[in-house]
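Re: [ENG-882] Designed sequences occasionally contain unexpected residues at chain ends

Forwarding the minimal case from QA. Structure tokens:
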């Protein structure tokens, strides 16, 4: 698809990520309002602090930005960030080489322009019984190719089989209309991507994940990406509802902090989005929003 014909598609994608962000922020603040029992019920209901993020190119010109929305110290959420961004410019030599090697794109050095837009979410919960969660979807464009990526995965420190089953069932239900092969492929991809080699284990109980997704049919690929985003709230919120009022003690909290250390290790060492954000000069606070407020290593 020629470059000019993609401007409309870029606008549609960026608008969708903003819409999804708004729906999630509203749902999470509603969840905070409804937490009327438990150890944090007397605290003020959490609210998102919203700030604009900006990015400048090497010559100081505008290179995009976004919105960083972070809630800290809520009744249900200890820390949650829901970020959107639309950034553009030229890829540096290291990013060009990495992308050319990964995707086999010719001409990156001759025309290293890029455009990227997406939503990224990470939630760390007050209760050790309530699972942490991650979700992101994104579109990436260069003059040489375009593609979509993203997914969501559940990260409990205390696993409940019924929560895992529900989370995966909702993902499958949203993917199956696009073809019954999508869910098993994206589940296996998540199992592989969210594996921590130096610990010899996964960081959570998986979910779905894809990258470099381009069939050549932009509308179909965008629809799949939208349904990955639409699956998030119905997959995650019932897990919160089931666990948020359970009693917990010091040993449970300790287990949560140790698991958060695992999560931090993964995001700092392996996560491709973290590496890309820092490599391309995006706001460091937004890029590192995924890190937990407290963690522990033993």
């Amino acid at each position: 698809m020629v470059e000019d014909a993609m401007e409309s598609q870029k606008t549609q994608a960026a608008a969708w990520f903003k819409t999804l962000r708004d729906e999630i922020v509203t749902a999470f603040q509603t969840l905070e309002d409804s937490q009327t029992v438990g150890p944090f019920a007397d605290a003020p209901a959490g609210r998102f602090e919203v700030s604009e993020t900006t990015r400048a190119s090497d010559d100081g010109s505008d290179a995009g930005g976004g919105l960083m929305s972070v809630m800290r110290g809520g009744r249900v959420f200890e820390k949650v960030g829901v970020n959107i961004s639309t950034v553009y410019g030229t890829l540096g030599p290291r990013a060009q080489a990495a992308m050319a090697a990964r995707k086999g794109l010719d001409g990156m050095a001759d025309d290293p322009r890029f455009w990227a837009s997406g939503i990224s979410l990470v939630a760390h919960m007050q209760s050790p019984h309530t699972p942490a969660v991650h979700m992101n979807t994104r579109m990436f464009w260069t003059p040489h190719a375009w593609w979509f990526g993203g997914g969501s995965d559940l990260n409990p420190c205390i696993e409940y089989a019924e929560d895992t089953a529900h989370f995966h069932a909702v993902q499958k239900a949203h993917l199956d209309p696009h073809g019954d092969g999508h869910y098993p492929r994206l589940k296996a991809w998540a199992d592989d991507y969210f594996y921590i080699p130096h610990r010899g284990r996964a960081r959570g109980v998986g979910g779905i994940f894809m990258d470099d997704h381009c069939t050549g049919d932009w509308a179909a690929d965008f629809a799949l990406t939208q349904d990955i985003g639409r699956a998030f709230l119905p997959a995650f919120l019932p897990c919160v509802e089931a666990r948020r009022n359970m009693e917990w003690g010091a040993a449970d909290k300790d287990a949560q902090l140790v698991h958060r250390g695992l999560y931090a290790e993964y995001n700092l060492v392996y996560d491709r989005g973290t590496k890309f954000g820092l490599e391309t000069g995006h706001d460091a606070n937004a890029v590192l929003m995924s890190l937990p407020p407290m963690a522990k290593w033993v």
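QA comment: On inspection the terminal residues look reasonable. Residues 43 and 75 are 6 Å apart (CA to CA). Proposing we downgrade this to a documentation issue.
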